[in-house]
Amino acid sequence: MATIEDVAARAGVSIGTVSNVLNRPQAVAPATRARVQAAITALGYVPHAAARALVAGRSRTIGLIVPEVTNPFFADLARGAEEVADDRDLTVMLYNSNKAPGRELRFLGQLESQRVQGILLTPVNQVAEALSDVVARGTPVVLLDRGSGHRNLCSVAVDDRVGGELAATHLVERGHRHLAFVGGPFTVHQVAERLAGARSVTDAAGARLEVIETTGLTVAAARAAATGLARRPAADRPTAVFCANDLLALGVLQTVTRERLRVPGDLAIVGYDDIAFAAAAAVPLTSVRQPRQQLGRVAAQLLFEEIDDPGRHGHRQVVFQPELIARASTRVTAPAS
Amino acid sequence: MATIEDVAARAGVSIGTVSNVLNRPQAVAPATRARVQAAITALGYVPHAAARALVAGRSRTIGLIVPEVTNPFFADLARGAEEVADDRDLTVMLYNSNKAPGRELRFLGQLESQRVQGILLTPVNQVAEALSDVVARGTPVVLLDRGSGHRNLCSVAVDDRVGGELAATHLVERGHRHLAFVGGPFTVHQVAERLAGARSVTDAAGARLEVIETTGLTVAAARAAATGLARRPAADRPTAVFCANDLLALGVLQTVTRERLRVPGDLAIVGYDDIAFAAAAAVPLTSVRQPRQQLGRVAAQLLFEEIDDPGRHGHRQVVFQPELIARASTRVTAPAS
DNA sequence: AACAGCGTTTATAACGATTCAATAACCGGA
DNA sequence: TCCGGTTATTGAATCGTTATAAACGCTGTT
């Protein structure tokens, strides 16, 4: 593969001049510049990023580690981050930790070894001890969606408690006095917060909120819970459920529909995340939407702030407010006769 | 940040020895090795990947460009490729072209500039001219899922025609004589092939196959088609539909269910891709599954084959066979009275 | 004719690792 | 005691680029 030296030889100039053509073209006489450009295209010269990174001391990339690439939440977040990175001509290296702490650790090491300018990370569990080392050695890190507790790091997240409040308020305002929360396990911080938010609203409104814990956040996990609900006598049944995410909500919708309940007539449903399927469901689903792409943008901005001026930079924990998207699954219907 | 020189100084050895500890520990006396290791951990030394890549002439990574990270097909494919790369201690750099030719081009350039050992690519449209340059300059490329026509490149793909045959055979064997194919646009190679496969089977069996073209492969796109179907008089209605993907199939399922048809009693449904939702649908969906992870594995293996011995390597086009997963949506039911 | 000033170009020293030939240290055997 | 043969360690060259200080060639002034 052609090197800068080959280009220089072909253009009859020194390598310094070629480097100038590449990095500060205005400093090179137009005729020379043209000659060098010609040599570059003729040889198909592609600069060697590693050599550049070596002199510069850092590479022109930032790292992004997410627990699930498949999840549109993180895909959108990545888009947001990329957008900001593009403005600086930086590449975002995307890694999928798949919720495996081992993978997270490995990628962290790789990114550090590549001397990335900074790292955006959704930590798998607690923030690894290894992370503190990375930060101590000088690579800025911004936490995504989790671990906002860390005061010595920047982080961005969405307020799940507010999300819970939005959902519950929406239902209470529509006259529901007996709600159910479906979700779990409660060890997942997000789930617990969403419940807490809902609880605060129902308590204040004097409404009833029963809690149905599931083992996970999948369609399948919703089945058991929903079957139980649907088979209760109407008087004993909540008139609305708030699900910790849209998959659960879809599961509930499917199951109770099969059990011949009408949605929203017999049971109103609110989901969380506003995935693409929410709008496309048999009964379009009311859901709580998080500003995903903005989350990524702001995270990247915080990171660059720290990169640009590590001294003056003060760590910030940015919390976004979610938004409720009302659809048919909570529409007020004429009371059944 | 600590360099190899700092480590050498602290351990009282030369940098050559430190390098040996890192790359061929058995060549270093145990006592020295221990001393160096201690220095490494004490200083938190992390080797500089760019410096390594510079001497080596290539980095320890391969690139993977997919059109949609959100799509589980590509996520699984990535996992397969990673698995193989891990065995060689290589990192997979994942890029999401988002079907934008501009992004694809940019990433291709970045990967080449990083001197990756090879590239796995799902080309957005036709194979870009730029790609030939990349290949000509010596970076091996394997095409994923598309562009198998190129005889001068390796590629892996799944036989969509066989997929169509599987689906149609399954339905014909269950006694269906009037089928419908739902999908589109037919400019998408995969869609056209699936239809062609189905057609060959129905023709051979003397069954009827009507074609309902949709504008896209989404739940929403299925609505119109399904509504039309459901409202036809039973005699004029196909007894089974084969959808070009699972999203369409789910849309059809939802819509015809709402129109009071029973699945599979009144209408059997076969999807394609076997996404997670297929099994979790109201009526679990029969679907054609592609060996996604294996696709990634084999692609990576082909790439490494070429990397290891570019001279002897002969380009191959590997085509996998899909598999039909039978579920409730095509179960044979007692004929309605 | 000498020189200051300017715009271009060049030579060279980094950057942080790996590699490999050369050297040093050590051992047992003659 | 010296030697051949290991085994361990070192020093220097090298990778491809950027940055920088010095050199160069003109022009216009004095």
UniProtKB/TrEMBL annotation, chains A, B:
<feature type="domain" description="HTH lacI-type">
    <location>
        <begin position="2"/>
        <end position="56"/>
    </location>
</feature>
<dbReference type="Pfam" id="PF00356">
    <property type="entry name" value="LacI"/>
</dbReference>
<keyword id="KW-0804">Transcription</keyword>
<dbReference type="Pfam" id="PF13377">
    <property type="entry name" value="Peripla_BP_3"/>
</dbReference>
<dbReference type="GO" id="GO:0003700">
    <property type="term" value="F:DNA-binding transcription factor activity"/>
</dbReference>
<dbReference type="InterPro" id="IPR010982">
    <property type="entry name" value="Lambda_DNA-bd_dom_sf"/>
</dbReference>
<keyword id="KW-0238">DNA-binding</keyword>
<keyword id="KW-0805">Transcription regulation</keyword>
<dbReference type="GO" id="GO:0000976">
    <property type="term" value="F:transcription cis-regulatory region binding"/>
</dbReference>
<dbReference type="InterPro" id="IPR028082">
    <property type="entry name" value="Peripla_BP_I"/>
</dbReference>
<dbReference type="InterPro" id="IPR000843">
    <property type="entry name" value="HTH_LacI"/>
</dbReference>
<protein>
    <submittedName>
        <fullName>LacI family transcriptional regulator</fullName>
    </submittedName>
</protein>
<dbReference type="InterPro" id="IPR046335">
    <property type="entry name" value="LacI/GalR-like_sensor"/>
</dbReference>
